[in-house]
Every structure is written in structure tokens, then in C-alpha cells.
Amino acid sequence: MRKYKAMENERSRNKFDIEVNGRVVFVDDATVSGREIIDAAHQGAASDYGLIQIKDRELQSIGLQQKIDLREYDRARFLTFEGGETFQFTVDERGYEWGAESISAIDIRLYAQISDDLELVLDKAQDEAIPDDGSVSLATRGVEHVITRKRPPKPITIRVNTRPKVVHGTRISWDELLRLAYDPVPSGPLIEFTVQFRKGPEPRVEGSMQAGTVVNIKDGMIFNVSFTDKS
After folding, report:
1. How high is the pLDDT of residue 9?
2. Paired sense of beta strands 118-122 and 102-104, if any
3. CB pairs under 8 A, 24+ apart, for 151-154?
4. pTM
5. Who contacts 162 (Cβ-Cβ below 8 Å, separation ≥6)?
6. pLDDT by residue (tens digit) across 127-142?
7. 5 band by pLDDT with thresholds 50, 70 and 90
8. Which residues, 6 or more positions from 53, have their beta carbon under 8 angstroms from its beta carbon?
9. Cα separation of 35 and 66, whole Å?
10. Band of residue 21 on the pLDDT scale cut at 50, 70, 90
């Protein structure tokens, strides 16, 4: 209710707030053109800038004469770019427009609402992910296509019988630990193994394992694998 009254009071003074480049500015009318939005944010000529409207998983270019009804939004959001040229790209076949020759992976994630468990990949180079601090060039001819895929598990370094071992995934099995500890793994009807660990993830920081079980792991976790031969 308080927010609604604040909006009504603002509109009663014939002022409407919008966000341009992360900064709140005010315009006089409920229906404004792209030129008026740019004028509200910059002192230079509006024709020197391009305007992109930010919507839910959408980036749309707005022409200088194109009208926007601000009453359709809680607060309309925009980005301006020098030069006025528009570039196009897609993320998982969903189209976006941008006002610069490149776009950072951070901005792609932000405006396309990509979750952290997914990585970005150029469709024409699917073997190599775009670094999280990298960017995508949009200056080449045509539309650049970006796809998402599950991030591969990060490598984890554990110590097995004091030796560092690099593994993948978040869990490790009894059998895997035996193979990491011994090559070949001792065998025989009277061979008994003992597996103990420490510095593991919460809630099971330390303990022992039984044959056929698995345990959650993290970087720096320590395993001690030993065996006895009762023959």
C-alpha cells in the first residue's frame, strides 16, 4: 500500500521515475519516446546514443521516436550506448539486442538469467566454454548464438595414504579409494581393508567407511587406506 501511494503521489506531480544505466531519473509524462529517455539521462545529443530496454529475460532496442507507456511497468529500466548501433545475439535460441560490439559473460548471465550451475558456450565452438570473466564479440556478420550446458564437476584434490590424487565429482566410493591407494589392489579371501578419513565436509568431517559405501568429499580431504592379510 505504501509503495502504491508513493507512486500515486509521484504521478500526481507529473513525474515518472525510470532507471537508466542503473541510475534513477525522472520524466514529465507517462508516455515518453526513446529520445526523451536519453535526454533525461544525458546532456549530449540523443542521436549519439542507442537505447535498450531491459525486460524479464529480454533486451529490446528502442528507437528515438518509439513511445513507451511507463504505466505498464513498476519502474522501466534502460541502458544507453554511444554510437546508436544495435547488435543481436541469442541465448538458447532466445533473441536479445545489445548496443555494443561485445557483451561480457557477466551481462549475458544477468539479463538472460542464467544460473551458476550452467556455463556459456558459443554454438560454433561447443568444446570450449566462455570464461566467466570473458566476453562475446558481436561485431561479426550475422547473429551470434550462445547456448548453455551443465558445468562439468570441478576437479578435487584429496590425499590417499599421503599422496595427492585428483578426482572429479562430489562423492567417492570405497572401491575407487582402494584403486587410488594400491595398484594393483591386493586380493584374496583373507584380505581385509580399513578406510578412515578426516577433514571431510560437514556434517561428517571424519570417520570410517565400509565396503560398498560412498562418502562426500572436498578439497584437502585426507584418506588412510590400509589392509591386513590374515592368511
Report:
1. 45
2. unpaired
3. 151/117, 151/118, 151/119
4. 0.70
5. none
6. 789 999 999 999 988 8
7. very low
8. 59, 60, 61, 62, 68, 76, 77, 78
9. 8
10. very high
Q: Which residues, 6 or more positions from 114, have their beta carbon under 8 angstroms from its beta carbon?
A: 91, 108, 120, 148
DSSP code of residue 123? T
Q: What's the grid cell of residue 120?
A: 556459456
Local structure of 170: helix, strand or coil: coil
Q: Amino acid identity, residue 141?
A: R
200, 217 Cβ separation under 8 angstroms: yes
Q: For the chain, what is the mean pLDDT?
A: 91
- CB 76 within 8 Å of CB 57: no
Dist. CA 188–CA 170, nearest whole Å: 30
Report the pLDDT value the prediction gives residue 142, as an integer from 0 to 100.
85
Q: Cis (ω within 30 of 0) for the bond into 189?
A: no
Q: Three-class SS of residue 111? A: helix
Q: What's the helix, strand, coil split of the chain in %, to 5?
A: 20, 45, 40
Alpha-carbon distances, residue 178 vs 184, 216, 217, 222, 231 (angstroms): 9, 16, 15, 14, 20
For 83-186, list the strands marked E by DSSP. Answer: 87-91, 94-98, 102-104, 118-122, 135-137, 144-150, 155-160, 163-168, 171-173
Q: Distance between CA atoms of 171 and 186, rounded to whole angstroms? A: 23
* Sole residue written with cell 590425499: 159
